[in-house]
Design goal:
Low-confidence stretches of chain B: 122-154
CATH superfamily of chain A: Signal recognition particle alu RNA binding heterodimer, srp9/1
Strand order of the largest sheet of chain A: 1-2-3
Distance between the termini of chain B: 88 Å
Order of helices and strands of chain B: EHEHEEHH
Subcellular location (chain B): Cytoplasm
Protein name (chain B): Signal recognition particle 14 kDa protein
Mean pLDDT of chain A: 88
CATH class of chain A: Alpha Beta
Biased composition (Low complexity) (chain B): 130-145
CATH architecture of chain A: 2-Layer Sandwich
CATH topology of chain A: Signal recognition particle alu RNA binding heterodimer, srp9/1
Largest interface: A-B, 34 and 38 residues
Helix content of chain A: 40-55%
Structural class of chain A: alpha+beta
CATH superfamily of the domain at 1-38 and 74-109 in chain B: Signal recognition particle alu RNA binding heterodimer, srp9/1
Radius of gyration of chain B: 33 Å
Shape of chain B: elongated
Number of strands of chain A: 3
Number of domains of chain A: 1
Largest sheet of chain A: 3 strands, antiparallel
Shape of chain A: globular
InterPro entries (chain B): Signal_recog_particle_SRP14, Signal_recog_particle_SRP9/14
Distance between the termini of chain A: 34 Å
Structural class of chain B: alpha+beta
GO molecular function (chain B): 7S RNA binding; endoplasmic reticulum signal peptide binding
Oligomer: heterodimer
Order of helices and strands of chain A: HEEEH
Strand order of the largest sheet of chain B: 1-4-3-2
Number of helices of chain A: 2
Chain lengths: 75, 158
């Protein structure tokens, strides 16, 4: 259920999002020393769980790039 | 509650502080693309759908080059934050995106600090690696001090 490696999660998430950008949403849940990332398009769901600070940096970069893409002008 | 970007960021930082104080509950952040519609898409009846299909097929067959594409739509981004029963949301357009993205990233980095540092790798090779390096360090220092002592003592004797 949870994807174990960050790179794998990032790759699959990008693929899923580009497939249908309107339908995908990224959810981030932060509780008690755990961070859970979830990207879903209401058909498939990719999840990543972490408790390490270094993963936060990677998640940050990923979220920023996704944010930019979401609000950009599209052709 | 729908806020403007600056207000949203302020409220979000407050939520993080509350979570730190209470040390309970989960903070959820969500991002989704938004195309600016305020009314729901109307469901067409079967008749209307058939009509639309006929019209579309006629248009395609007559002039295949002209396609009604929506490349002038400027998308926005919906951002939501939920903590307990408190709900915040904001809409970010591409104009404010630079500012928002920087502020948002800084906020997350500053507030999600209860995550642990990366643990040591639990592979079989790495513990051996680290222990040998430690052993190398320890014998070297007493050896050097012994050498120093040896050098000084003959001078004193003389």
């Amino acid at each position: 259920m949870f994807i174990q490696s960050w790179d794998e999660f990032a790759k699959q998430a990008e693929r899923l999002y580009l497939n249908d950008p309107m339908a995908c949403r990224l959810c981030l849940k932060y509780r008690n020393e755990k961070l859970i990332l979830r990207l879903t398009d209401n058909r498939t769901c990719l999840q990543y769980k972490t408790k390490y600070a270094q993963d936060l940096k990677k998640a940050e970069k990923f979220m920023s790039s996704l944010l930019r893409h979401m609000a950009s002008k599209e052709a | 509650m729908l806020f403007e970007i600056d207000h949203f960021l302020l409220e979000l930082s407050k939520l993080f502080q509350q979570q730190r104080i209470k040390n309970a509950g989960s903070l959820s952040l969500t991002m989704k693309r938004y195309d600016g519609r305020t009314k729901p898409k109307t469901q067409l009846t079967k008749k209307q759908r058939l009509e639309q299909k006929n019209v579309m097929s006629k248009v395609l067959s007559s002039s295949p080059s002209t396609t009604a594409s929506n490349d002038s739509i400027e998308y926005k981004c919906l951002v939501r934050a939920i903590y307990g029963s408190k709900k915040l949301s904001t809409v970010v357009s591409s104009k404010d995106m630079n500012r928002f993205q920087l502020a948002y990233a800084n906020l997350l980095k500053a507030n999600m600090d209860t995550l642990k540092k990366k643990a040591k790798e639990s592979k079989a090779t790495t513990p051996g690696h680290t222990s040998t390096s430690m052993n190398n360090n320890s014998p070297s220092s007493p050896v050097s001090t012994q050498q120093k002592k040896a050098s000084t003592t003959p001078n004193k004797k003389k």
